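Hi R.,

Here are the chain sequences for the assembly we discussed:
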Amino acid sequence: MKNNYDIAIIGGGIGGLMAAHRLAELDPSLSIALFEKGNPLDRRICPIIAKKTKTCIKCKSCAIMEGLAGAGAFSDGKYVISTEYGGWLTEFLPDETVIDYIEQADKILINFGATTERFMPSNELKKLCLKYDLHMSQAQVKHLGTDSNFDTMLNLIHALEDKVEIHTNSNVTNVDKETHTLTVQSKGSEQTCTADKIIFAVGRAGSLFFSDWCEKNNIPLHNNQVDIGVRVELPSLVWEDFAKKIYEPKIRYRSKEYGDIIRMFCFNDRGQVVTENTNGVLTVNGHSYRDESRKTKNSNFALLSTTNFTQPFKEPIEYARHVASLANLISGGSVLVQRLGDLEVGRRTDEKRLRQGTVRPTLFAVPGDLSLCIPKRQLDNIIETLHALDQIAPGTANYDTLLYGIECKYYSARPRCNEFEIEGCPGIYAVGDGAGFTRSLSQASANGLYVADLIAKNV
Ligand SMILES: Cc1cc2nc3c(=O)[nH]c(=O)nc-3n(C[C@H](O)[C@H](O)[C@H](O)COP(=O)(O)OP(=O)(O)OC[C@H]3O[C@@H](n4cnc5c(N)ncnc54)[C@H](O)[C@@H]3O)c2cc1C
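And here is the predicted structure of the full complex:
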């Protein structure tokens, strides 16, 4: 590690990598360091995916969330070309600018091997949804696939290695906002370096670190939204029409009972349910491969109920972590799975009932009772929405539909900033999910490229 760099990037997810790529391309003379607390991409092995264990063993560094290529490394690689969802960049930039940067990032990914195939929006399906008061977002979507997404990211990283100093297993534990000194813990020792410009691109895995840092440095933070719910798994035939036409249905519903918004998203056609470990709490997620031989008979999607807290409560992330921890607690350190029918009649799903079900789980989770850990309001919302969705995709609310819990999306607290430069910290920027600006591969990429362009103009 050198003593000083022109630019230091904290976090090697897609936001950080895109920023590094653009900066190196625009000015090859820049000295750029990228610090990633997790492993190099080819050493990121989740013991569950490698079939070494059936349940999460809480690795020191979660291979799903941390390491080069970030949280997206084993994702389904759905690349959304739209500003309708996937983040909040349009609160800072005009729509056209966001789309332009999403397209620029797409071109970069295509250069490194991503597919050019796009799924187009369907008015016919949107109309069908509207008939039942379900609101489907319209977007062009690409499905990179877990396998091909991994290879694309590997190619991007290999190309960067000649131009950028990439330090893996290097955890940035502090940044002095006055002197721009970074403290980096790596392989048991602590080192420091300085950088003229610094980009925080820490993702959800680094969101606690980042919000603590902001609080310590008196940087105002804002966030009061949290989404809590389940991962739904059912036979792929149920949503086949949608999957074939648009690949990913993203649907919003306002519950009649509470008037809350419930979102269906992160759909994985013939995919797999997985666990993820965020700062010690185990939650669920899903992905699917492009390779036909690795596809399953089930599809899965997230179904989450949004809560916006009002005064005096200010800790939505802690709230979500508590709910998810409760599921970890009652499942003996794992996640829960329950049949919808059992949930509705108020009984636990046990091993026998799960075996009797017609949907074979793709994740080894502990059969149990979700009503013991999901608050009533969110649970009612989820059940009501499943029945609403059943009208456009019959079979969604079948007795054997599997619900895994908890899935939650907590959005990192957002620092006050101007053009992504953090208030009171000249030369220090934040991008991506970790700063609460984005929640998708496409917007995190766009955010990284945009900030790189800004920095390149000013160095
Ligand atoms: C299982 C899964 C599936 C998903 N599927 C999709 C999908 O299909 N489509 C989609 O658009 N989005 C998907 N997402 C979300 C998407 O992955 C994220 O929106 C995107 O990765 C955010 O990019 P980022 O660069 O902001 O952060 P991340 O990708 O999270 O990267 C941040 C990196 O910073 C590192 N880091 C954190 N703190 C420090 C520190 N102090 N020092 C050094 N390094 C640090 C982390 O280890 C991490 O590697 C999925 C996420 C998961 C977990």
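The longest strand covers residues 189-200. Residues 225-410 form one domain.

Let me know if anything looks off.

Best,
T.
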